[in-house]
Write a structure and sequence with these properties.
14 helices, nine-stranded mixed β-sheet, Rossmann fold, Beta-Lactamase, 35% helix, 387 residues, alpha/beta, elongated
């Protein structure tokens, strides 16, 4: 019998909750010869196995790791340069199954043969997705996306190479001019990090209302209120979607309305809000290239019952900027800044690059400069040089 099993049995016999103090007392009772430091270290390990992430806890605590993936009993981690195997022993697939079920149950979700997959959010903000066999043929499979409390400033992103130093003033001017923008890119490309950083540039006199599917944005700003979607409970009731939350947010006197990720019909409500005086709104969107954004918005607009022509009319009136971030071998980088302009007799939304990493200003630079000037914000030098 392992130490954890003995402690678990002891706590069950005593009928006490597995609090840190109770675990320490139980460890001391069975390991009287250990010193204080060793007892506390063993108690932390036991508590992780009883209530926490068990052998995965050290990985989730590592600030360099963004993702922890479990395939059966194999563990992979991502430190920003691709996936690498981690030397972590999880035991048998049955041990991994129990770990997944414990983590999901602690978040009020269900994971069993009748519901073999689940999304959950751990107390520290880590996002968890778990799938059990037989759906997971080689499983169980766990996917954990870590949440870091430490925010980044624009200077931090410049220092680490995510944002080119020459384009940083453009981002600051864009926020100061209250231009509406979308941060686009693939999964894990750094969209949320860049958006949170830009929200930190919003003047402290303005109120930011966040609407998110899962609470991830933590901008450094004195006046932020956040609304988080809720999934249905085990009875299938109580779900609250992003569309409902956007409508609630509009009644909360937002100076800046932000949707953490646009993925459904809520895009219609966001565009409607940005067209009714709520300047400076923002959000993230999954897209592989700036030119893909209009088609992606069309697809989401159809989910909300908005026809193509009306969607494009809303887009060109509500959104001005597209920022594309991409994940590379050297890290995450802001690849381009583009403007949305109407084009052709149907005035369809068209993406025109204003700046591209490695290429400098593009044909949309003068357009972006004029947008800033019309709102009383001087165009940064990189945009003025492109005229």
């Amino acid at each position: 019998m392992t130490v954890t099993d003995r402690i678990r049995r002891r706590l069950a016999v005593d009928g006490v909750e597995a609090t840190p103090a109770a675990v320490v007392r139980a460890v001391r009772r069975g390991n009287e010869v250990l010193g204080d430091t060793a007892v506390l270290r063993l108690a932390d390990q036991v508590r992780d196995e009883l209530l926490g992430a068990g052998p995965l806890a050290p990985l989730l605590a590592d600030p360099s790791i963004t993702d922890v993936l479990v395939n059966g009993v194999q563990v992979w981690v991502d430190r920003g340069a691709g996936l690498q195997r981690a030397a972590v022993r999880l035991g048998s697939p049955e041990d991994v199954r129990r770990l997944a079920q414990r983590l999901v149950a602690a978040c009020g979700r269900r994971l069993d043969d009748g519901q073999p997959y689940a999304d959950a959010r751990l107390p520290d903000g880590t996002r968890l997705h778990a799938v059990l066999p037989p759906v997971a043929t080689g499983g169980p499979y766990l996917s954990l996306r870590t949440f870091r409390q430490r925010p980044f400033s624009l200077g931090d992103l410049v220092a680490c190479g995510t944002v080119d130093e020459a384009v940083a003033p453009v981002l600051s001017a864009m926020v100061g001019a209250r231009l509406a923008y979308l941060v686009c890119g693939g999964t894990g490309s750094g969209k949320t990090t860049l958006l949170a950083t830009l929200l930190g540039l919003v003047p402290p006199t303005e109120r930011i209302v966040l609407v998110e599917d899962a609470a991830e944005l933590r901008p450094v700003h004195p006046h932020v209120v956040a609304l988080q979607a809720r999934t249905a409970n085990v009875e299938g009731a109580g779900a609250v979607g992003l569309t409902d939350l956007v409508r609630q947010a509009l009644r909360m006197r937002p100076d800046r309305l932000v949707i953490g990720e646009c993925r459904g019909a809520e895009i219609v409500d966001l565009l409607g809000a940005l067209n009714t005086g709520h300047d400076g709104g923002a959000g993230t969107l999954h897209a592989n290239a700036p030119g893909d954004v209009p088609a992606r918005l069309e697809a989401l607009g159809l989910l909300g019952g908005l026809p193509r022509s009306a969607l494009h009319a809303q887009v060109v009136a509500a959104l001005q900027i597209i920022l594309l971030v991409r994940r590379t071998e050297s890290g995450r980088v802001l690849e381009s800044v583009s403007v949305l302009v109407p084009s052709g007799p149907d005035r369809l939304a068209t993406v025109v690059p204003a700046w591209q990493c490695g290429a400098g200003p593009g044909p949309g630079a003068p357009v972006l400069g004029r947008m800033l000037g019309e709102r009383g914000v001087p165009a940064p030098p990189i945009l003025r040089a492109a005229r």
